[in-house]
Write a structure and sequence with these properties.
alpha+beta; 4-stranded antiparallel sheet
């Protein structure tokens, strides 16, 4: 997977800070929205988290403004839906 680009998303979320919103859980992961104070301005981060992870993993970052809130909401719901779909593939009966 040499062609995969691993982005360095802004500030790391503090695992002790509660999320602003939890979109839901699927495939053993919780999808949530967090607000992070960053040096260049606050950001909203869509994260995935599990008990086994030491910190939530950031999957998307947008600016913390009205447009960013709308975008983060769409992204969070899309990530959750993708995880739900992946989970259904692993739990469905083959050939059905």
């Amino acid at each position: 997977m040499a062609e995969v680009i691993h982005a360095g998303f802004g500030a790391r979320p503090n695992p002790s800070d509660p999320p602003l919103q939890v979109f839901g859980q699927a495939a053993g992961l919780e999808v949530a929205l967090r607000r992070i104070e960053a040096p260049y301005g606050d950001e909203l981060q869509v994260t995935v988290d599990a008990e086994a992870l030491s910190v939530p993993r950031v999957v998307a970052v947008v600016l913390a403004n009205a447009a960013g809130e709308d975008e983060a909401d769409r992204i969070g719901k899309a990530v959750l839906k993708a995880l739900q779909y992946a989970e259904s593939l692993t739990t469905s009966t083959p050939g059905m």
